[in-house]
Amino acid sequence: MKILVVDDVELDRALLSEALRKLGHDVVACADGKSGIKLFQKESPDLVILDVIMPKMDGFECARQIRQLNQTKWIPIIFLSAIAIDEEHVGKGLEAGGDDYLTKPINEVILAAKIKAMQRIADMQLHLIELTRKLRAISSIDVLTGLYNRLEFDHAIKEKVAKANENQHMLALLFVDLDNFKMINDSLGHSAGDALLKEVAERLKICLRKEDVIARLGGDEFAIVLGHVESPYAAEKVAKLVIDTLSPAYYIADQELHVSSSIGIVCYPVAGTNHETLIQNADTAMYHAKQLGRNNYQHFTSELDAKRKQHVALSTGLKFALERNELYLTYQPVFDLKSKKMVSMEALLCWKHPTLGLIPPDIFIPIAEDTGLITPIGRWVFRTACEQSASWYKLGYTDFKISINLSSQQLLQHKLINFIVDILDETQFPSHMLELELTETGMMHNVIASEKMIKAIHDIGIGIVIDDFGVGYSSFLRLKRLPISTLKIDKFFVSGIATDVNDAIIVNALIALARKMNLNVIAEGIETKEHLNFLLENRCPQGQGFFLSKPKTIAEMTDYFKKIYHFK
User: Fold this and answer.
1) pLDDT tens column, 291-314
2) Within a 13 Å sphere around the CA of 280, how many CA atoms are in the beta-carbon half?
3) Which of 53, 219, 270, 472 is the one with CA 20 to 30 A from 534?
4) DSSP H or E run through 457
5) Mean pLDDT, range 308-332, rounded to an integer
6) Measured between alpha carbons, how far is 518 from 485 in angstroms, rounded to an integer?
7) Where are the beta strands (DSSP E) in 192-294?
8) Strand partners for 335
9) Is 423 helix (H, G, I), strand (E, B) or coil?
10) pLDDT, tens digit, 9 for 90 and up, residues 29-44
11) Is the pTM of this model over 0.90?
12) Which parts of 364-433 are beta strand (E)?
């Protein structure tokens, strides 16, 4: 061992040094506390022996300063005392960071024994430190990809922000999310999904410098910390590189897969001065990138911050909307375009916020889906629509169908059929008068389970309507295999049929396709006479839109029923 001896009495220092050398140790020695601290820093000894009573700086103070200099590695400290050791000395020694005492004159046998004991403790301490280091390394790594995990990312971003603040330079944080990964995971299985994530991790590594940090936060989300960038443009260049690197095909489980990514970018200190704010804002920017069509990157802006705050406010308000009776349904008729007769109606969910007024469905429905509130809200919609439809049915208005939208989350609930049957039994509403609307995209969340549930719904006599047809993922093979009764052509195409040749061709082709497959067709978004005339000319059987009828309240719908049935 290398041992530092600090003693102001020259003879005592010489005798102790000689005794230690006889025991086979290297010795460095000095006569005062300040010199001892300098020697400690220079020589890095394995053990320190300090005289307690010394001029200017006593042994206790010297021990305190040594402990402050060496907080990561434990070095044993033994105090020397020419007087008997009492409780007061022991207390002071422990408080100062000492581990043991020797009394003068030195007994070489006791000296050897104490040094061996300290050496054993030091060895155990080193082993513990190494074990702790290994455990920290294991706990900091994502087992699947070998990247840092969320815990280590939190440590890294804090350190990088502190360093950027200290050196007054810019850093960047990128949140990377794979587009449509869930669809791949559900269709090919988790093993294929895991293999894809491993390959993505390897590709991400080649995009970065040694000083940058990359972590998998969970699922298909990754974070990249660029410790030092000259400008936001530099971070943008890395985002472009990531998108280009992840784009080429992946060959997994005998399948050729293509994966794009959505990236949110924030820079310190422009978009936040602490790690919590940077993380929050990077997530907001990434979410915005997804909303803009995926496979792109977006910087965080003040406008996005305003949208995020609105999102939080609406999410909070939506939690209480049901119990506060802020949600209600309107009913929009669907007409036979040739006879102008109403054939069905769609139940539409509305939300009147107490301070913000009417919130558009395209704003609050995605929030409900993101927060999981779509399930209780969807159940309320189903029950309410069936109860109201049953009320009209009992009044003698029997020649109509009611269409209710079903989210992908509801579709995958294993007790959905039981819920539907129970509500129909309670309300005594005939199942053949009910239709459930599903989006193409919604059916792609766990394809096998979705198809099984759709067939089960059809088996109890309920019609299946594919909403927003033409903008989702359905294939003709799936249309053929599923018991679908109706296709609704998305209003995006209908809105342009009078002015855009391509929209007109697409709508005409969809009508012809449905006719060949013996499916009913409803054109959504009929807002002008030109829209209606085009659809009539191309033999579209049914339609829905403001030109035909706006959504009606319960009272308005009841009056409408009285009018078309010619009785009160």
Assistant:
1) 888 889 999 988 888 887 888 889
2) 13
3) 472
4) helix 447-459
5) 91
6) 8
7) 213-218, 221-229, 250-252, 255-257, 261-268
8) 342, 543
9) helix
10) 999 999 999 999 999 8
11) no
12) 401-405
